[in-house]
Amino acid sequence: MSNEKPLTLSNGYAMLGAVLVAFVFCGVLFVGGIMLLETFKNPLGGFAMGAAGLLFILTLISCNGFLVLLPNEACLYTLFGSYAGTMKESGFWWTNPFMAKRKLSLRARNLEGARLKVNDKQGNPIEIAVVVVWRVADTAQACFDVENYDDYVRIQSESAVRHLANSYAYDHGEANEITLRSGFEEVSQALRVELQERLAKAGVDVDEARLTHLAYASEIAQAMLRRQQAEAVIAARKMIVHGAVSMVQMALEELTEKNIVVFDEERKASMVSNLLVVLCGEAEVHPVINTGTLYN
Fold this sequence. Notes:
Elements: E1 10-11, H1 12-38, H2 44-62, E2 66-69, E3 73-79, E4 82-87, E5 91-94, E6 100-105, E7 109-112, E8 116-119, E9 125-136, H3 139-144, H4 149-167, H5 184-199, E10 204-216, H6 218-257, H7 265-280
Antiparallel strand pairs: 1-5, 2-5, 3-4, 3-6, 7-9, 8-9, 9-10
């Protein structure tokens, strides 16, 4: 693996002043050479004009060494195929004009993944999508260890999401089991850790990874919706029955303690049955008044 190393550059403003002086000197030397040839017929004028031309070309080449770096921006330098170093400090700089340079952004980037259809731990087809916040941390690894770090991040992120979906159930897992639906924070943290392991080869740091879409696939969505509705109805029924039984018990105890009425077992069973019908029924109850006795 490649390792990033810092590179020290010269102050760009000082070199800019030197370049301007060199251009002025080239002009003066060239004009002086012309005057020597035309006025004094001195052959040194030709040498002066040649030196002025050569100096002008060298000064133009030196202009290729200037560099302007913005905050959160880096520039990687290579000299004849060898890695020379990376400059990360913002400002106006100058270095060897023969070094090839490549600018890289160190700012945070968002990768909004496409919706993927995968199977969860239980084999149910689901749709899942994530967003990943990442940045380049090691410029040498990003440029030399992978072909294209943007494509590498995208492909590895998709692979990590598929592996994540296969590792967790959508919902209704085993007791105390983390699921994609209930363990949002835990799942996001697991995704970020796995992405960091995969993308470390490309010199990339993962700041955040979160699920943006999670749903059953369309072919089973209706069946799973009916199951969820049935489970909700069952849970509600359990709560209603539990409350009704508590209310019937309280009513019987109150009636017995205050000696309002004395129930034998058959009357008590009838009382319990009627109260449960009233308390648990969904439709409005229309009581029937019995003018006789229970036994007639």
